[in-house]
Design brief:
500 residues; alpha/beta; five-stranded mixed sheet; 13 strands; Nucleotidyltransferase, domain 5; Hypothetical protein af1432
Amino acid sequence: MAAPRNGTHTIAAVDLGSNSFHMVVARAEQGQLRVVDRLRERVALGAGLDDEGRLSDEMQERALACLRRFGQRLRELPRENVRVIGTNALRVAKNARGFLSRAERALGHPVEVVPGREEARLIHLGVAHSEPEAPGRRLVVDIGGGSTEVIVGERFEPLRTDSLYMGCVSWTRRFFRDGRITPKAMRQARIAARLEVQTIARLVQALGWDEALGASGTILAIDGVLRANGHGADGITTESLDWLADVAQRQGRIARLDIAGLEPERAEVLPGGLTILQAVLEGLHVDRMRATPGALREGVLYDLIGRIRHEDVRDRTIRSFAKRHRVDEEQAARVERTAKGLLDAAARPWKLQGDAPSHLISWASRLHEVGLSVAYAGHHKHGDYLLRNSDMPGFSKPDQDVLATVVRFHRRKIEREEFAALAADAGSMALRVCLLLRLSVRLHHSRSARRLPDVKLVLHGDSMSLRFPKGWLDRHPLTRADLGDEARELAAAGIDLVVG
C-alpha cells in the first residue's frame, strides 16, 4: 500500500474476545498511534457456548448485531488497514466457521482466528509499546474471557509465550455456575488454575523477570477495585487478592456483589478471574504485579504499522522457519523469483492483485521444500504438517492452513476440494497461486544457477499456456518431460496446460 504524502494512516483493530468485543481506530503518524475512536461492548461470547461447544443462535445474533455497528465505522477503511482478531471462544467453537462468514459480512473485513501464542505475542507487543522503555525482562499476564496468556519478553521481543486454557468467563461458568461464591468453590477454582499454571511455571521462572505487568479487562478491573478500597497502592499482591476473595465470599452471591469500584458487568465474571489471578501470582511466585493499559488491541495496531512499513513479523517467521529446517535457500530463491514473475503475468487475468497473493507465493516458494527436513519421500506432506501445526508468529490459523495447503499440493496430485475447504474466499486464490508455484518448481528441477529464458505465460480461465523460445525445450529434455508430467497431473484435476 502506498503511504500518503503526510506519512499518516487511519488503521483499526478489532478484538473479538470471549467476554467483550473491542474496536480501536487510530491515526498512525510517524510510527506512533493517536487513538481517534473506541467502541466496546460486552458480548460474553464464551458464555454462549453450549455443552457441545457450539455458539447458540441467540449468542450469534447478539454478536452480529455488535459487529454491524462496528462495521458501519470500519467499512470505508481499506482492507489492509484493518485487522480483526478472534480469540479463544472462536478457537474452540465447533460451529465457528459458519459464524465467521456472517461476521465478515457484518464487518466488511476478514476475521483472523489466531492461535493462543500469536495472541500472546500481540499482547506483549501492545504492552511493550504502552510502557516506557526500560532495561530488563518483563512478565506479562493477560486474563481473557476464555484463555490466559503468559509472556516473558525484553523490550519488543517475546522470549516465551504461553496460552493457558482458562479465562474469567469459562472459570466462572465452570466453578460458579449457580451464582454462589463459597469457600469450597473458590478453593476448587484456585487449585484447578494452579494446576494449569504448574504446566509452565518451571520454564517461565527459569527465564526470570524484573517486573510483572497485568493487562486487559480482568486485571485492570481488579486493580481498580483494590485501589478504590485502599488496597492497591503498591500494586496487586497475594495479600490484596486474599482480601478481595474474602469480601466476595462474605457477600456470597455474584448477583449480590457490591464492592466499591466494581462495575456490574465485571462482577458477573469476577470469581473466575480473581481465582485465576491468585493462582498465577502464587504459581509463578510473583510478589507484586502492576496493571498496564496496553493489550491485544494496541499490539494489533502496532503490528499493522509494521506491515505498512514493510517490517512484517511474518517475513521474520518465514526466514526463521527456513533456517530451522535447513531449507536450500538458493533453490528457494530461484523458485521464488520465477514464481513471482509468473504471478505478474497472472495478476490481472486471474485477479491476483494485491499483497495477499504476493505474500503467499513468496512464502510458499521459500518453504516449499521444508518437509525435506523430515524425509524426501512425501516431503510435500511433511511440509504441510509442519506448517499447519507449528507456532508461526504473525500468522493466524487460517493463514497457516492456506500456506500449508499450497505447499502440500506444490507437487503430485492436486485435490481441488482441499482448496475449496479453506476459509472464506481464500480457496480460489490459493489454488491459482499453487498452480504458479508448481510450474516454477518444475522449471527449476535441475537446480541450476543458470537463469531461465524469457518464458511467456498465457491464461484463459483455468487453462494455461507456457511458451518458450524456439528450440529451448529441445535442449532441455528434463524440463520438457517435467512439464509433460505436469500437464497430465493438472488434466486429472480439470486444468489444461499447453507447453510449446
